[in-house]
Structures are given as structure tokens and as C-alpha cells.
Design goal:
Layout lengths: L1 E6 L5 H6 L1 H8 L4 E6 L12 E2 L9 E2 L1 H12 L6 E11 L2 H7 L4 E5 L16 E4 L9 H12 L34 E2 L2 E2 L9 H19 L1 H4 L6 H11 L3
Parallel strand pairs: 1-2, 1-6, 5-6, 5-7
Antiparallel strand pairs: 3-4, 8-9
Bound molecules: adenine.
């Protein structure tokens, strides 16, 4: 997979994408990354990428011409990329979207800054993504979050010992992940549930399912609307939500 970004702060990406699992996946050739500087497609002495909005108002907008030139020039270097813009006005990103993007061969992420973009720039977008209902100073952090969530889904990225299959938000479960523990079995009066020490795989599996239902009911009850629960699990969720 080839992942590219266009932004006015191309240097923000390298540290994160060189470290840890991202760095390892990159060195293993699972993805290639290139950060492009939007200012390379300006033509004035000050390399201007922003301007005041028509009609007045606060702040500056990203100009349309450099964005068009950049996306067109970068796109022409290879097969047509899937082009993603970032904005708090976009569609909220989720695990399903990460899975969809992980199947693309070439992703081009366009990161805005300032108060937004000239609306005409969005004509280039295959999709507009929001990280959540809050405002960042730019799209770079959103792009990094999306890149991370996509790369870890690439086969081999997490290594053999880890699997993205039964974690929170994976498509089939619709529940948060179950509670997990490691040594020590007892810490400051807080004991690991006995069943997890039992070695009884069926009991462990049943406990984990109940734990996932309880945690989801307590922390993300909105997710339960789309999860399929047995009558016993529905009762368990009701009690967890009431804090019983
Ligand atoms: N740019 C600024 N805020 C953003 C957000 N919440 N998601 C995506 N891009 C952004």
C-alpha cells in the first residue's frame, strides 16, 4: 500500500510513522509513505496557501489552487489514489471505515489548516473524514490516526501474536472488548476473576462475553442498540447500566 499526505507541515508525520508498529510495518514493506508539502504547488514569493474569506468573517481559508495542483500532480505519479480530505464537517471515522480503507492500494490524505478550505477544493475528495465532534488545529493528527488504524489492519502488521479480530468495534461483535488482566493475580486487594486462572477455556469464553456486554452497557450503551444479545445478556446489560 502507498500512503501519501499533502499538508503544510509534512514533517509532522515522520516521527510517528518511523516508530513502533508503524515503523516496523513500514520497514517490512507493508506500506510506503510519502509526505508532500502543499507549498511546493504555490507560485508566489511567500508560498501563500491561505487567504481571507469572501463575504468577511474570522480567520483564513486554504486557497483552492495549490490544493488542486498538488492533488493532480501527486495523483498523476501512479495509479489513481483514493483521496481523503479531513474536516470536522466530514463523516465520523470508525473501524468499518478503517477496514474499507485498508483494502485500497493507494491512499492520498489532504490535511487542512486554518479555519477551513475553499469549498471548491472538496470536489477532489472521494470522501471527507472527521475524527470526531471536536476541532483540531489541522488535519495532520486526524490523518495520523487514520493511517495508524489502517496500517495495523494490513496482514502481518501486528505480528503473529496479536490479532485485530476480537477487539472492540470489530465488525461482527459490536461490543467493547472484554476486561483483561496480567500478573500479579492480586494487587492492593483487587483480585483477578478466578475463572481466568482456571484454565477452563469454555468458562473463560463465557466470562469474556459477559464482560464485553457489561463494559459496553456501562461505557458505551449507544453501541448496544445494534448488538445482538440473548435475553440473559439483555438483562445483564440492564443491570450493568443501572450500576447493580
Ligand atoms: N480538522 C480539524 N478538526 C478535525 C476533526 N475533528 N477531524 C478531522 N479533521 C479535522
Amino acid at each position: 500500500m502507498l500512503i501519501e499526505t499533502i499538508s503544510v507541515f509534512p514533517e509532522l508525520f515522520e516521527p510517528y510513522l518511523s516508530a513502533s508498529i508503524m515503523g516496523r510495518a513500514r520497514r517490512a514493506g507493508l506500506f510506503e509513505f510519502r509526505a508532500h508539502d502543499l507549498r511546493d504547488w504555490t507560485h508566489d514569493r511567500h508560498r501563500t496557501v491561505d487567504d481571507a474569506p469572501f463575504g468577511g468573517g474570522q480567520g483564513m481559508l486554504m486557497k483552492v489552487e495549490p490544493i488542486f495542483e498538488a492533488v493532480e500532480a501527486v495523483s498523476a505519479e501512479g495509479p489513481r489514489p483514493h483521496v481523503v480530505f479531513f474536516s470536522p464537517c466530514g463523516r465520523r471515522f470508525d473501524q468499518r471505515a478503517a477496514e474499507r480503507l485498508s483494502r485500497e492500494d493507494r491512499l492520498l490524505f489532504v490535511c487542512g489548516r486554518y479555519e477551513g478550505m475553499d469549498e471548491r477544493a472538496y470536489a477532489l475528495a472521494d470522501e471527507v473524514v472527521s475524527l470526531g465532534d471536536y476541532v483540531l488545529t489541522g488535519g495532520e493528527l486526524a490523518a495520523l490516526a487514520v493511517i495508524d488504524s489502517v496500517v495495523r489492519l494490513l496482514p502481518g502488521a501486528l505480528g503473529d501474536e496479536m490479532s485485530p479480530v476480537d477487539e472492540s468495534f470489530s465488525a461482527d461483535a459490536g461490543l467493547l472488548e472484554y476486561a483483561q488482566y496480567t500478573r500479579p493475580a492480586s494487587f492492593r486487594g483487587m483480585d483477578v476473576p478466578e475463572v481466568l486462572l482456571s484454565g477452563d477455556h469454555a468458562r473463560v469464553a463465557a466470562w469474556r462475553r459477559a464482560s464485553a456486554v457489561e463494559r459496553t452497557a456501562r461505557w458505551r450503551p449507544d453501541l448496544l442498540e445494534r448488538a445482538s444479545l440473548t435475553p440473559e445478556e439483555t438483562e445483564l446489560a440492564r443491570r450493568a447500566r443501572e450500576g447493580a
